[in-house]
Design a protein that fits this description.
With 402 residues, the chain is mostly helical. It contains 17 helices and five strands. The chain folds into three domains: 4-169 and 249-260 and 368-397, 3-Layer(aba) Sandwich (Rossmann fold), CATH 3.40.50.620; 172-241, no CATH class; 280-367, Tyrosyl-Transfer RNA Synthetase. The longest helix has 29 residues, at 369-397. The mean pLDDT is 92. The structure holds tryptophan and iron/sulfur cluster. The site of iron/sulfur cluster has 14 residues, from helix 14, helix 15 and helix 16.
Length: 402
């Protein structure tokens, strides 16, 4: 069985290159190795944009189209919408009961965002609670790994604390620990040691090789060791994945190289700054935006030499261009041998080429909105199966199973 990955994105409408290179590309890469759940965090969007009802519906499906266009494969990955699963709200409520206020007040993004988004009234209960809602999203699916940007590490850390607290309050750690020890005692000493080594390696690094080795060991024992039952095997397989003795699984953040793609004005690419190149911009639009992009301010005239390190266009070359092109840029820029428009052309070409398959796939879905709805419908039902089971376990653990 593959380990589970879960991530969510707020519905902000059509996505831009920053979303692709910062997150989506990684989502696509992960889906072959992991059981990936990707969802539209529409309630999260409401924690800051509760007055703007237009974030919904159109934005939601526009974003899903970009996910699929980028290569998220609905056959491999489970795509769903948060608000379609009221279980998230139920888990959030139940977790809220035992979560100290201080844990939420101390989340660094809390004060930061309140500072940054001064124009909105964020002194709300929903905004304070939003990292806990995120914890519920993650814990619902017993995700082992959560691909997020560095800015969200504190939310994953909070999730781990919440899971730990839940398990210690309501888990049945003690009996399953005894059972695990008993199962391990049935193995040869070396085998038990080998198993522990793989379990640790998987827990610490997420190494799938370690997971496979540990599983292989357990299967071998189930087949060969007298008295080693299928229950023992189940227990150890759960233990190996870190899910056996606990009701909720402590996730780990998966940070990918942080790529801060600048927008056309040199600031971080962001829809709200109006400086973004969209995944679905037409070639003419891409050309116009990149040609208008700011460059090293020292190159006011064509004859002034520049410094790529001070130029946002260079960030694009680092991402899109091969070494030869990069050399050409450095030499041409510092010697004023090339003009900025010459320099931008390979970037324009590379973006347009990268976008071609996205545009083709997106066109197909834009023409068949029913197909997108259907994909989300299927994903939502798949997610619901898992969410129902988790809530059943959680209610039971909390003594709510009347
Ligand atoms: N909070 C994330 C953001 O603002 C989105 C999100 C919501 C999320 N729930 C999540 C990401 C669960 C990872 C896992 O970008
Ligand atoms: Fe930037 Fe290229 Fe112009 Fe140099 S030549 S300032 S790297 S756009």
């Amino acid at each position: 069985m593959k380990a589970r990955v879960l991530s969510g994105m707020r519905p902000t409408g059509a996505l831009h290159l920053g979303h692709y290179h910062g997150a989506l590309k990684n989502w696509v890469r992960l889906q072959a190795e992991y059981d990936c759940f990707y969802f539209v965090a529409d309630w999260h969007a409401l924690t800051t944009h509760y007055e703007q009802r237009e974030v919904m519906e159109r934005y939601v499906y526009d974003m899903v189209i970009d996910w699929i266009a980028a290569g998220v494969d609905p056959e491999q990955s489970t795509i769903f919408i948060q608000s379609r699963l009221p279980e998230h709200a139920e888990l959030f409520t139940l977790l809220a009961m035992g979560t100290p206020l201080g844990w939420l007040e101390r989340v660094p993004t809390y004060k930061d965002q309140i500072e940054k988004l001064k124009d909105r009234d964020l002194a709300t209960y929903g905004f304070l609670g939003y990292p806990l809602l995120q914890a519920a999203d993650i814990l619902m699916y017993k995700a082992s790994f959560v691909p997020v940007g560095e800015d969200q590490s504190s939310h994953v850390e909070l999730t781990r604390e919440v899971a730990r607290r839940f398990n210690s309050l309501y888990g049945r750690a003690s009996d399953s620990e005894t059972l695990i020890a008993a199962a391990l005692a049935k193995l040869a000493k070396d085998d038990a040691r080998y198993f522990e080594k793989q379990r640790k390696a998987f827990g610490e690094t997420g190494s799938l090789e370690a997971l496979a080795k540990g599983e292989g060991m357990v299967r071998k024992a189930a087949a060969n060791v007298a008295g080693f039952t299928t229950d023992d095997a189940e227990l150890l397989l759960g233990h190996l994945k870190g899910s056996g003795k606990s009701i909720l699984t402590e996730p780990k953040a998966l940070h990918t190289e942080v790529l801060r793609l600048p927008g056309v004005d040199g600031a971080k690419m962001s829809k709200s700054y109006g400086n973004a190149v969209l995944m679905r911009d037409e070639p003419a639009e891409v050309t116009k935006k990149v040609r208008g992009m700011v460059t090293d301010p020292a190159r006011a005239r064509r004859t002034d030499p520049g410094d790529p390190a001070k130029c946002p266009v260079w960030q694009f070359h680092k991402l899109y261009s091969d070494e030869a092109t990069q050399d050409w840029v450095v030499k041409g820029c510092t010697s004023a041998g090339i003009g900025c428009l010459d320099c931008k052309q390979p970037v324009i070409d590379a973006i347009i080429q990268e976008q071609t398959p996205w545009r083709d796939r997106a066109e197909n879905y834009l023409a068949n909105p029913k197909q997108v709805h259907w994909i989300v419908e299927m994903g939502t039902e798949r997610a619901r199966t898992v969410a129902r089971q988790t809530m059943k376990d959680v209610r039971e653990a909390m003594g709510l199973a009347y």
